[in-house]
Amino acid sequence: MLSLAHPAWLAGLLLLPAVRWLHRGGAPLQRWPVAHLLLWQAPASAQAETAGSRDLDPAWRRRCALLTLLLLALAAPQWQASPRPQVTVWLADSASMALLEPGGVRGEQAVALARQQLAAERPGADLQWRRMSRPWVEGLTAPQSAASQPPPVELLDAGREHWWLGDGSDARLAQWARPASRVLRVGSAQARNAGWRQALARRAPDGRLLLQAELANGGAAVEARSLSLWVDGLALGAPQAHTLAVDAARWLSWTLPAASRRIELRLEPADDLPGDDRLGLELTPLQRLVMDLDPACPAALRRAAITHPGLRLATPGEAAALALRCSSGATVATVATVAAGAAGATGTTGATPRMQLLWHAGPARQRAQTVLGPRSLTQFVPARLGANRALRPAPRDELLLSAAAQPLALRRVDGTIEVAIDPLSLPELPLALEALLKSRTGVGLLDPLVQSEPRSVEVRPGAPPAALEQRAEARGARGAPRSLVLPCVMLAATLLGWELWQLGRRLRRVGR
Amino acid sequence: MAAPRLNLPTAAQLQAFARLAAPLLLERQPRAQGQRASGRRAGNGLQHLDHRPYRIGDPLRHIDWRASARWGEPLLRRFEAESSGDWCLLLDASASMAVGGKWPLALQAACALAYAVLQLGHRVALARVGRTLQPLLPLGRGAPHYARLVRSLGASALPNDPALHWAAAQPWLAPAANTVLLSDFLAEDAGTLALQQLLPRSRTLHALQLRDEAAEFPALPLGQELELVDVESGATQRLRVDPATRAGAVARREQLAERLRAQCARQGVAYSDWPVGASWSRQWLRHLAGARC
User: Fold this and answer.
1) Contacts of A32 in chain B (CB under 8 A)
2) At B185, phi and psi to the nearest 5?
3) Labelling A373: which of A365, A397, A481, B55 has CA 20 to 30 A away?
4) Closest in B96, B224, B236 to A35, CB measured
């Protein structure tokens, strides 16, 4: 919006008629010397016309424009980008915002409250809605992501007001980079909810599957629920009754058949937040991989493959996901191939492994990485490990395993992994085989883990972020008025240059 | 204003012109219609020339009483002038003479005539006439006088006087001298007043009207309103130029020339129209021949 800092200067525009009046005499005439004036007499009619009123000097328009621009520059025009307040409402879309409360769904109540407040305090505002689910897209209908987190400071446009809207049940969403202009908290303190927070499963050494799930009470009252487990669409056992105190959480465990592919945990009866009353988990990644073993492989390697909990030797005619070839030269292109060194070579034997293979009886509460961890291959191999033959690495080969400055496993340029470990010398051979397979396939087979994304079941409103009423600051942040004096002066300078050029032309003409 | 570079006739041109002009300059005077041609002229001398009726103011001692008694009225005895002819050259120094090539032509004409008459033993004087008289050279004769004349012309600046008063030359003119006016005669009276003022003091009077049409009637930009400035007076006049403007100016110039020509014919003044670009020697010979008719 255009405004003037000193509008009184515009009164000078009243001088424009005077400028026009001053040019009534017409443009300066071209002077032409003649020998004697008496020879040059215009006809009487032309004389009368010449003596009459003359056209205005066209320069009056240019000079009026110059005067106008100078007066405008003195009046200091300013441009305000937009007089409308610009507000971004951030919706803390935690799971609790889907809670059904007496007045309706909590999230819808929050949006209605925000609209009411905006209509009262920022009428006609340039409104923008954003959810706190990554990637913080605009709009209320955006799909919700489980990874809710406060927006980065780059998204907090300094030219806009930022309103925070939520129930505060998720403490992470209350962590703002800077105070919000306005905080609207919704939610009833008497809200109740019990639900599944997370579930995880892993394979037991005997081949069965271990399942653990966490049940939590995020409401304001003690909750009693009946829970049931469904495996591949069939209920497993009778429903169990559980009572949970306020803020209590309980881990529950089950042992599942090895062939289980999908489970679903259910809570009954359903409460005001049905989204966390059921939890499903896919168990397919826990199934053993079928491996085609080269008959030429040594017995120790065969034993290692058989004893590997993540592998199962393929029966004749069965399609295999992995193949192990031992100096046979044959390579199956469609499956991963591991090439081992020729058997029969002598090497150091009898070494006691320094590390024990850790097989867990069941999945831990923590994530699998904390148990097995992304360890490098050398951690599982003793330094005294012997080689059955010497490997000669090429310049572009990748060294996977070495002991005593002796390469034991190489990834060749063509992707083949070549191993020179004496299979008779390694009690850790299954673990070494697992490491090699993992380096080839990218997934660990010894102790795979599947787990659900942790959920928030808390529905009691928490502490919102600190609000800072910064109306004046926000208004200022919409952008300081942009001065238009310089463009006016530039235009005036252009006109002045034009005027000087015209004067120069006239002077040259008179000089001639 | 700096003196212009002289473009005078060469010695050979002057000598050729002097030979051709000598018969035309010898004791032949221009006369008005009805006048009788005479080989001699009256003046101060001892040799009796003729008689004429006495007019008030004539010296009484020159009255021929016997002839008066026979004739029945007082007659005055006139004597043949014993001196050679005097030529007074008057150059128009008004600013309009600087327009075009009129001033160089005037200098050429003055030099040529002065050379020719000095060759015949006459005396020559030279002056510029503008708002006032500016004598450049007194009466004198001989080749050194011609050299002085050339030097004085070379030192003479371009004409720039804002007015022209021929009457200012009256006291300077030698009695009974041949007076030559070199001018464009651009004046409201077309120079006729000058003729009336100078003719009584002159034995013969020559009016040479110099014209430069290209400079005097420039092609003004059509359709524009101009401010014309008189180079003499500085007066201005607004004028919207149309195709008839220049034709009107030429016509008015012709009217002025015709008026001057008629006045010269009435008063026995030798008149010539000298356009710039014409041969000065041919123009002089034509003028002198016409003056003898």
Assistant:
1) 218, 220, 226-229
2) 50, 40
3) A397
4) B96
